[in-house]
Design brief:
The protein has 2 domains: 240 residues, Aspartate Aminotransferase, domain 2; 138 residues, Aspartate Aminotransferase, domain 1 (Alpha-Beta Complex), CATH 3.90.1150. It has 383 residues and is an alpha/beta fold. Helix content is 39%, strand content 15%. Strands 1-7-6-5-4-2-3 form a 7-stranded mixed sheet, sandwiched between helices. A 5-stranded mixed sheet has the order 8-9-12-11-10. The radius of gyration is 21 Å and the shape is globular. It is built from 14 helices and 12 strands. The longest helix is centred in the middle third of the chain and has 20 residues. Helix 1 runs antiparallel to helix 2, helix 3 packs across helix 4 and helix 12 crosses helix 14.
Length: 383
């Protein structure tokens, strides 16, 4: 079956008891056993739940891997991967990352005695130079948040594996519809399913996918032991959203292409970050490892922070909000929202301060989105 068909059917057979076409919400914390240890595959909902199991199967199918695990949030999923590390281990991470990931690395992972080195995610040689005998994990987002940098997954996977390390890829921005990291050499894929996979801004969740049996066993043990799992209703909501992932991503991408091109020619815009633009420094890599550039666009306004604030406050169709990937368009000011935890000088060094605005382009009529940003740009220029 092809992608759009699997999104609707994988792990989602009709209910054997009632024939219900849609997977039921198994709102039960425990499951009756015929005898001690004799059951129908489920004992206690932290360890496994039928609705969550359907979601995990569907996600694994879409990423083209054998195993999927659902978590209560994207950060819970990330922490599961970081649980693979022990004191004395070393992580190499691409520098442009979601602020919550940096916070997790700096305030939780380091306190376990794990060293972290940040490198330019666009340069495979930087990863190679950072490898030590203790390197156990390489972590990247591609496209990255918020600058939409790309990492050459195949090249970095080769470097990681040569050193005995695993490569984990946060695939949230691209989704499995546009990019499948394991097919390119990655060992682990992570998603915030809150975003494009859920797609409707009404559920929080995360996922870890892998084709490696040993890694899966360790991650599944952690999932059960730590208990950071999504409830049945959140699992059901995300599974419902997953059914329309293909059609939504086509619309997100179509609108983002038009809007990015429009912004590139707009007065008062210094730079537009979007992998679908010929001007993007990694446009060739984008065409090689992705089937499309996605629905995220970042822009840098010429007037810096004051212009960015005027722009954001003048928007009417775009909502000023954190998160991304919903059907509605969202605008975010990373330096004071998603990446506010970073010290100001570090934000500036990473290129996240000043006039940088991140747009999650929704599936509204693109002419309305263009009119909205034009009005906001006029306000930004007005001073």
């Amino acid at each position: 079956m092809r992608f759009a068909t699997r999104a609707i059917h994988a792990g989602q057979d009709p209910d054997p008891t009632t024939g219900a076409t849609i997977i039921p919400i198994s709102q039960s914390s425990t499951f009756t056993q015929a005898a001690p240890g004799v059951h129908k595959g489920f004992e206690y909902s932290r360890s496994g739940n039928p609705t969550r199991a359907a979601l995990e199967t569907a996600l694994a199918s879409l990423e083209g891997v054998g195993h999927g695990l659902a978590f209560a949030s994207g950060l819970a999923a990330e922490n599961a991967v970081f649980s693979l590390l022990a004191t004395g281990d070393h992580v190499i991470a691409a520098e442009d990352l979601y602020g919550g990931t940096v916070r997790l690395l700096e305030t939780t992972v380091r306190t376990r005695g794990v060293d972290v080195t940040y490198v330019d995610g666009t340069d495979p040689e930087a990863f190679e130079a950072a490898v030590t005998p203790r390197t156990r994990l390489v972590w990247v987002e591609t496209p990255s948040n918020p600058l939409l940098h790309l990492t050459d997954i195949a090249a970095v996977a080769e470097i990681a594996h040569a050193s005995g390390a695993a490569l984990a890829v946060d695939n949230t921005f691209a989704t499995p519809y546009l990019q499948q990291p394991v097919a390119l050499g990655a060992d682990i894929v992570v998603h915030s399913t809150t975003k494009y996979i859920g797609g409707h801004s009404d559920a929080v969740g995360g996922a870890v996918l892998t084709d490696d049996d040993e890694l899966f066993d360790r991650l599944r043990f952690y999932q059960n032991a730590a208990g950071g799992i999504p409830g049945p209703f959140d699992s059901w909501l995300i599974l419902r959203g997953l059914k329309t992932l293909a059609v939504r991503m086509r619309e997100h991408e179509k609108n983002a292409r038009v809007l990015a091109a429009h912004l590139s020619a707009a007065e008062g815009v210094d730079m537009v970050h979007f992998p679908g633009l010929p001007s993007h420094p990694q446009a060739r890599l984008a065409s090689r490892q992705m089937s499309g550039p996605g629905g995220m666009v970042s822009l840098r306004l010429a007037g810096g922070k004051p212009a960015a604030r005027r722009f954001l406050l003048a928007l009417r169709v775009f909502s000023l909000a954190e998160s991304l990937g919903g059907v509605e368009s969202l605008a975010c000011y990373p330096s004071e929202m998603t990446h506010a935890w970073l010290p100001e000088d570090e934000r500036e060094r990473r290129g996240i301060g000043g006039g940088l605005v991140r747009l999650s382009v929704g599936i509204e009529d693109v002419e309305d989105l263009i009119a909205d940003v034009d009005r906001a740009l006029a306000a930004a220029r007005a001073g």
